[in-house]
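Q: What changes when copper (II) ion is included in the input?
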Amino acid sequence: MKFKAISLFLVTLFSTYALPAFADKPEPWGINFQKAASPLAERIHNFHDMMLWIIISIALFVLVLLIWVIIRYNHKANPEPRQFTHNVLIEVIWTLAPIVILIFIAIPSFQLLYYNDRTETPEMTLKIVGYQWYWQYKYPDHGDITFDSYMIAEKDITEGQTRLLSTDAQVVLPVDTDIQLLISAADVLHSWTVPAFGVKMDAIPGRWNEAWVRINEPGVYYGQCSELCGKDHAYMPIEIKAVSKEDYKTWALANGATQENFEKPALEAPQEEASAEAVEAPAEETPAQEAETQGTDAESVPTEQTEQTQTTL
Ligand SMILES: [Cu+2]
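A: The predicted holo structure follows.
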């Protein structure tokens, strides 16, 4: 058992992604990340891998230096130490080297931060509001489909459902679509987190926070509230069912969207040949942008639970 644990650790350490992912959802004794299901999660994993090698290299370098000093310069091996206290060359090196390493890390880090920030070309919007203790979802572009999503209690779990993660209403989303996520809360702080998407965004009452996702493949993805929000914090999971665009349209039409919703894109993607100025000043502001410019946008954040729409899958 111990050997197994150690070998598993070493395998993870030295071939982080050479092996197939251990889990697409949390599993007992699972280690490592869930399989990346979005371009953002892929980039986060790549950045993590890069950082891991830098950290290992630094740790090994310091370890070697320590061992060298302990062996070569202990009292027995070196009874008469030299008395100098300064060395210009070595001081310049140990000042510059960390700076170079930090710059080397900062560049991809900032690239990732800005990539993570928002999508320039949202094709649809999903509004997410955290409540004690469930999530409410709204599809403003597609007939304002609105529903609450509660965890299925352990006693009601049926075959194929996952304890603590399955919900009574899955969030159906299309694959290969830039989805703008607008996240808020109506009572206390929550955090909408889906590891496979690389999305973890605080849900703050009185404010719309923005995130985005583009799901690579159909499947069911899970997440959980990641901000301590009260006694049932652990019991407000997120369950997303990613389907093809056609299946999504069928689902949306069956739940209140109209054909018209799908003919007119919610937001025009900026034209490639448009001038830089035009791209910089979009004609239309998303609610998140408005929230950003106004600081808070308390009025547009729902404070009451809205009507529950039936979802059939
Ligand atoms: Cu919560």
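Observations recorded in class: The longest strand covers residues 124-131.
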